[in-house]
Amino acid sequence: MKVLNARKINSLFTIVGYLFIWGPIVVLGIFSFNASAYGVKWEALTLKWYVDLFHTPAILKAVLRSLLIASITTIIATVIGTLAGYGLYKYKFFGRRALRMSVLLPITVPYVIMAGALLVYFTRIVHIPLGYLAIIIAHISFSAPLAVFVTLGRMQRINWSLEEASLDLGANTVTTWRKVTIPLLLPAIFASAVLIFPWSFNDFTVTYFVAGVGTTTLPLYLFSMLEYSLKPVLINAISLIFIIMPIFLIFLIYLYKGGFKQKT
Amino acid sequence: MAASKTGMKIKTKLRFLPTVGPISIWIVLFVFAPVAVIVFISFLATGPAGGILPKFSVENYRFLLFGESEYGRAVLRSILYAFVTNMACLFVGFPMAYWISKYGGKFKALFLFLVIVPSWSCYIVRIYALKQLVGYPGILNDFLLSIGLISSPINILYTPAAVVLGLIYIWLPFMVLPIFASLEGINPALLEASLDLGATPRWQFLTVTLPLTKGGIFGGTILTFIPALGDWLVPLLIGGNRVWMAGNLIEHFLVVRGKIAMASSMAVILTAAVVLLIYMFIKLGGEESMERIV
Fold it and tell me: Cβ of A120 and B41 within 8 Å?
């Protein structure tokens, strides 16, 4: 009897937790199909906000900017991060532990601190103009560590004797990398990219500090819309895109993982 | 021959360089250097126009911590809110992780994904979603009014309670994951043994399960307490300009007022608090809490 009660309480907490996490997002999604522009009352079903979205050049430009920044960030951060994860796992060298801790720094310290520090550094010390370059550099600093830890987490599950076999059989280092190591690392590379792309696309704090004028990414655009309360329902429509993207990416991982299991 | 052999040896020894080299350079250039710069600037005097004067001074620190009470209060408020957020996340997050681990069956991964997915969507969007639901004018208020449960709208926006609610909403998923990982790592034999030795389910939970998830709990604490402590968007968007936290001070001094030295001092104070807390949590939760956060 007691066990049943404990289980019921446990289930209750879990339901409350899920409702809390999903409730606001689901309501937001539903209201993006609401005809009323300002009210929070339901009027009628409409798709006009989604149509509007595609007729607002500022939004489309912001989306393109975000996509561009996220793509470049993903490529560079994934390469640097995966390499580092590989090195940290495979080689013993002086300062290995220190490097591991240092990589952790940008993702554990609150973003506002590091982003503020980068702004001061860019404008006062190294004179990197605020804009695309500054945003991409900043994004890589925060997202390469994600790739490092994703890779480190997967290294243990990889059968490294294949790499040794390749070297033993006379392939040189470059060939071994190309033909054996990279294919072995592919799941880690993919997982890193899938994590980094939405991170960069959705980031607000870091971008806000180093964007300067003229590089309004989608989250920055959303923020300005919210601040000046422009067309609230249009925000709902954009918001749904932000929510769909991670779900889509996770679905991709799911498929990929399933496919991977079948192969091995 | 000998020379080429030592050459080979050095080559093998330095093989790690191309792999960890790029990230090391990157971290030195774009993480350590900026941090060093703001630590240095934080000890410079602020000029009358807000610029930096090349003169050593601890005036910024004195001003922030003991000068205008509003700023010192924002720091204390951040610590309090982060603590409440952390406790609430633990209170809801632990049962969730426990439930998924125990009753999730073959849908464990799915239930876990359902916790993570929202945390992957845009931060601003999530805050806005919450604001639209619980604010006024808001959907929940409207609904409660129309069914007659309340007679006048309740406006919780721009209050400390709303800010804390927002913080819990944003950071809850990060508490569930580490605890779940910890629970999954418990050796089932230990649970069986405790039952065989006569423990009641409640006693078993308190003396076996809970101590064994300590690492996950402190890992989750690092992932919720620290970002909540440094959060500035939730207080900005949900708290209006009325409930400031430490992060808002950094943004305010840096972007709005252009007082770089003051902002740097604030950032250093916050970083010091963060480092101290992380150290404390790892000491309390053991090495495992470190592993659980990555």
Answer: yes
**pLDDT exceeds 70 at position B107:** yes
CB contact under 8 A, B118 and A22: yes
| Confidence grade of residue A257 (pLDDT, cut at 50, 70, 90) | low
Reading the block at residue B6, the tokens are 């030592």
Q: Identify which of A28, A80, A124 has the shortest CB distance to residue B129.
A: A28
Interchain CB distance below 8 Å, A110 and B270: yes
- Note the CATH number of domain A48-263: 1.10.3720.10
Query: Which residues on A lie below 8 Å from B96 (Cβ)?
Result: 13-14, 17-18
Domains along chain B with CATH numbers: 73-247+261-292 (1.10.3720.10)
Check B120 against A249: CB less than 8 A apart.
yes
Per residue in B178-212, pLDDT (tens digit) is 899 888 888 888 888 888 888 888 888 888 888 88
Closest CA–CA distance from residue A187 to any residue of chain B (Å): 17
Q: Residues A5-18: pLDDT tens digits? A: 778 888 999 999 99
Residues in B closer than 8 angstroms to A103, CB to CB, are: 23, 27
Q: Which residues pair with B46 in a beta bridge?
A: B52
Contact between B26 and B13 under an 8 Å Cβ cutoff? The reply is no
Confidence band (pLDDT; 50, 70, 90) for A135? very high
- Is the interface score ipTM higher than 0.90? no
Is A140 at the interface with chain B, CB within 8 A?
yes
Q: Å from B143 to nearest chain A CA?
A: 9
* pLDDT (average), residues A95-124: 87
* Beta pairing partners, B53: B45
Domain residue spans in chain A? Answer: 48-263
